[in-house]
Design brief:
The protein has 407 residues and is mainly α. It has two domains: 212 residues, Chondroitin AC/alginate lyase (Glycosyltransferase, Alpha/alpha barrel); 161 residues, Chondroitin AC/alginate lyase (Glycosyltransferase, Alpha/alpha barrel), CATH 1.50.10.100. It contains 15 helices and two strands. It is globular and about 65 Å long. InterPro entries: Alginate_lyase_dom (IPR008397), Chondroitin_lyas (IPR008929).
């Protein structure tokens, strides 16, 4: 067989018998099954793929992005260090030549300062994470090479190319001008989106055009270094001790990175510790999350924390830890926390402070609980508000934060 027919045969084989990717969060077997149902003509999945392709097509003429493109380096002076600014901190004084920043900065919880998108890597980081997740899934379900090739280009530029790569740390995330050069809570910048990158590279590892063995090795090296920083740095240790969504997302990232780098023992320990350390500590018997309800955006943060915990439950399934089945001594459970959201998610009133309520923010969480056997959640599925861009649960069955808040 000549080279061209061989390549065509490989593309056909991909369309009909895709490998199940070794995704740390997503269930690779479910992706494989969805691809097979799609090829068999499943109308709901065909509709979802059209929506996915629309998103993917929008990324094809954007990027790649790099941390070295910002106007100036992070406070440490290395242009390869990631830099972001605390989103809820604002200047309190007029800007003058003597005080060009308007320092000191003061906190206004839930009110996002638009200057965080200028002079930092925050916005570009979001584009990298969103684009590669979308493009890799679009390639997996359609076989269109352009999607995978662009995802590979974006990943190499941001993570592994020596000239443009990001250093594997978040030492200067969410700095506050004139106050802090970086903060532990800046780790939340990577939140659930970074685990989407881990899933994306696992999907590309199934044979994507433009993604090489060298790419895979380089990315795994970056993952190992970043995992080491998350576990051993002072910022990482501080974030691990947080008793709200920050601690939940730290654990989720550690567990996912552990799976991606082959440290299943660390993944198992981290997921297992969430029973008492996260579920018991953060959720009441009636499903409330008091630390999140105290925020000015209590709906957003209640769903946000559950994105971390339900994704951690997804990771746990890969290593034999069932967080959905857990019931704490005082009645805390993931199911109870999702059930607490159901009235507002299906058109009712949310009785707590919220500056920008979107019912669809809970949609993925309801899907996750329904998949885990929650009958209340299953009954609510027909009454959910569709998120912008459509319901993609059938293509990527793991919760994402649907009401985007850049911070």
């Amino acid at each position: 067989m000549t080279a061209a027919p061989a390549a065509a045969a490989a593309r056909t084989a991909h369309r009909t018998t895709p490998a199940a990717p070794a995704t740390p969060v997503l269930d690779g077997r479910r992706l494989q099954q969805a691809k097979q149902r799609l090829d068999a003509g499943d109308p709901a999945l065909r509709h979802a793929v059209r929506q996915l392709r629309t998103k993917a097509d929008g990324w094809l003429d954007q990027g790649p992005w790099t941390v070295v493109d910002k106007p100036g380096p992070a406070p440490g002076g290395d242009p390869h260090d990631y830099l972001s600014q605390a989103p809820y901190w604002w200047p309190s004084q007029p800007r003058t030549p003597e005080n060009p920043r308007g320092c000191p900065y003061v906190q206004r919880d839930g009110e996002r300062n638009p200057e965080v998108d200028t002079g930092t890597d925050h916005a570009d980081r979001g584009k990298v994470f969103d684009s590669v997740s979308t493009l890799s899934l679009a390639w997996y379900y359609t076989g269109r090479a352009a999607y995978a090739e662009h995802a590979a280009r974006i990943l190499r530029t941001w993570f592994t190319d020596p000239d443009t790569r990001m250093n594997p740390n978040l030492d200067h995330a969410q700095f506050i001008p004139c106050k802090y050069d970086g903060r532990a809570i800046g780790i939340i910048d990577f939140s659930q989106q970074f685990t989407g990158v881990l899933d994306a590279t696992a999907i590309l590892d199934t044979g994507a055009p433009g993604w090489t063995g060298a790419d895979r090795t380089a990315m795994r090296g970056w993952y190992r270094d970043f995992l080491g920083w998350l576990v051993h740095s002072e910022f990482g240790k501080e974030e691990a001790a947080a008793d709200n969504n920050h601690g939940s997302f730290h654990d989720m990232q550690v567990a996912a990175l552990a799976v991606a780098t082959g440290d299943r023992a660390l993944a198992r320990t981290t997921a297992g510790a969430a029973r008492t350390g996260r579920i018991d500590a953060q959720i009441t018997a009636d499903g409330r999350q008091p630390n999140e309800l105290a925020r000015t955006r209590s709906w957003h943060y209640s769903t946000f924390n559950l994105v971390a915990l339900t994704r951690l439950a997804d990771i746990g399934r890969h290593v034999g830890v069932d967080l959905w089945a857990y019931r704490g001594p005082k009645g805390a459970s993931l199911t109870g926390a999702v059930d607490h959201l159901l009235p507002a998610a299906t058109g009712g009133r949310w009785p707590y402070p919220e500056l920008d309520f979107h019912a669809y923010a809970a949609s993925d969480l309801v899907h996750a609980a329904a998949d885990a056997g929650d009958r209340k959640a299953r009954a609510a599925l027909a009454h959910l508000e569709a998120p912008p861009g459509g319901d993609l649960w059938g293509l990527r069955p793991a919760a994402e934060q649907l009401d985007s808040i850049a911070g």
